[in-house]
Write a structure and sequence with these properties.
This protein is about 45% helix and about 15% strand. The chain is of the alpha+beta class and about 160 residues long.
Length: about 160
């Protein structure tokens, strides 16, 4: 599995991002200083390595360093991730609006409460199998978590 985004892939991906996405990173306090991360684009690439790539914080930092993107430790990446939540939510809402205009979306939301539901397996360090299951529900209109529950690994999605 490919772990990083090449420059060619990145240039294609950027074309799909909403106008003003870099300025929004500054306005929403996701990108406040250039220490070790030189731009909102670098920050987004780093976050995507972790979030979309499904890597740990430490692995994402290692991939970023090996690819020459930036040098950061896992604690610093966690801090950047926490300060980026509002910006990432803005990106997701804006992309959703570009796909489905607000008037069409609101028409469905008046009739139905649309939720995205998933369960993920959580393994404790040193574990040889599944330990826990995180059940998570996201309200599609607001993109906020409306329910979560942690169960043992035997409980399935319901």
């Amino acid at each position: 599995m490919k772990q990083s985004i090449t420059n060619d892939e990145w240039s294609v991906l950027v074309k799909f991002l909403p106008k003003g996405w870099e300025e929004e990173a500054v306005a929403r306090k996701a990108f406040q200083r250039k220490r070790n991360v030189d731009s909102p684009a670098t920050l987004l690439r780093l976050l995507l390595i972790h979030l979309a790539g499904g890597t740990s914080l430490r692995t994402a930092c290692t991939i970023a360093e090996q690819s020459g993107l930036c040098k950061l430790n896992d604690t610093a990446l966690m801090g950047r991730l926490q300060s980026s939540h509002d910006w990432l939510r803005w990106l997701a809402l804006t992309l959703r609006q570009n796909i489905c205009p607000q008037s069409s979306f609101e028409r469905y939301c008046k009739k139905f409460r649309i939720r995205l539901v998933d369960a993920s397996i959580i393994n404790e360090p040193g574990s040889t199998g599944s330990d826990w299951r995180l059940h998570y529900s996201l309200d599609l209109e607001t993109l906020y978590c409306d329910t979560f529950k942690i169960t043992d690994c035997k409980t399935g999605e319901t």
